[in-house]
């Protein structure tokens, strides 16, 4: 596990050097980040596949491996969609606003890459622990419900991103805020809400397969970090931008009053 964590830092450091000094562009930030998730997921798939072959007939091993395989697939699917979406958004906007203040400052840009390393390592911790353990309880009805829920929230996030992309792509919506679809019926940030839920579900799937309370406790760092990121950083940042942009718009003020911020039924 330590080797995986160190490899993540190394990959992001190489990405930083490549972006900051070689091509002097932030174009591949998300590629390195999400690509690392895909790589870890694939390595877990391969490792668990061969372990399943070696221990075929030993139900405890097989069930534990299947749990890890499911989470590996979730990580691969989630990160693949995310990098495609983010790259497409950058192509449409011609720039990435996240890096406006660090575009020509390698030291500050390094902090972004370091934080991305932490994000990756924290997020993959439940997967690494359940993969490391191998032996696990069998999948039950609760696990299949969790799998269905994860698929539902993944779909919600993809649909929400798609709705906003289509909305902003129409010339008549230039300078407007999105107040339709999931962005009205669910909350003002349905993509962030879904992101939080997906990582909590992954945690609970892994939690049910871990026999060490210490492992279960350590794994909490993944959903807690994502929740903190979405609730305390990303959402306030987006709310501030919108508040400044639409401060004199009564429709926006009404939208804020009538639509939940990020967690439905909790304003």
TrEMBL record:
The chain crosses the membrane at residues 6-23, 30-50, 70-88, 109-129, 141-160, 216-235. It comes from the Eukaryota. The keyword Membrane applies. GO terms for cellular component: membrane. InterPro entries: UstE-like. One of its GO terms (biological process) is hyperosmotic response. The keyword Ribonucleoprotein does not apply. Keywords: Membrane, Transmembrane, Transmembrane helix. This is Steroid 5-alpha reductase C-terminal domain-containing protein.
């Amino acid at each position: 596990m330590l080797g995986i964590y160190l490899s993540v830092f190394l990959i992001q450091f190489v990405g930083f050097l490549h972006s900051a000094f070689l091509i002097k562009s932030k174009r591949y930030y998300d590629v390195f980040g999400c690509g690392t998730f895909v790589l870890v997921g694939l390595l877990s798939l391969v490792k668990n596949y061969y372990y399943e072959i070696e221990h075929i007939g030993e139900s405890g091993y097989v069930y534990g491996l299947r749990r890890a395989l499911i989470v590996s697939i979730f990580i691969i699917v989630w990160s693949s969609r995310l990098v495609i979406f983010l790259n497409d958004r950058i192509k449409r906007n011609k720039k990435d606003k996240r890096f406006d203040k660090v575009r020509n400052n390698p030291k500050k840009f390094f902090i972004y890459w370091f934080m991305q390393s932490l994000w990756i390592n924290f997020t993959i911790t439940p997967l690494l622990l359940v993969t490391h353990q191998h032996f696990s309880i069998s999948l039950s009805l609760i696990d299949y419900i969790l799998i269905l829920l994860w698929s539902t929230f993944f779909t919600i996030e993809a649909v929400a991103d798609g709705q906003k992309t289509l909305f902003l792509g129409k010339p008549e919506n230039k300078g407007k805020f999105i107040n339709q679809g999931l962005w009205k019926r669910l909350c003002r940030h349905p993509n962030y809400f879904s992101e939080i839920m997906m990582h909590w579900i992954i945690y609970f799937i892994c939690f049910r397969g871990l026999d060490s309370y210490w492992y279960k406790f350590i794994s909490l760092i993944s959903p807690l970090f994502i929740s903190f990121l979405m609730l305390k950083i990303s959402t306030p940042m987006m709310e501030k931008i919108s508040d400044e942009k639409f401060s004199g718009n009564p429709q926006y003020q009404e939208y804020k009053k009538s639509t939940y911020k990020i967690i439905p039924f909790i304003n």
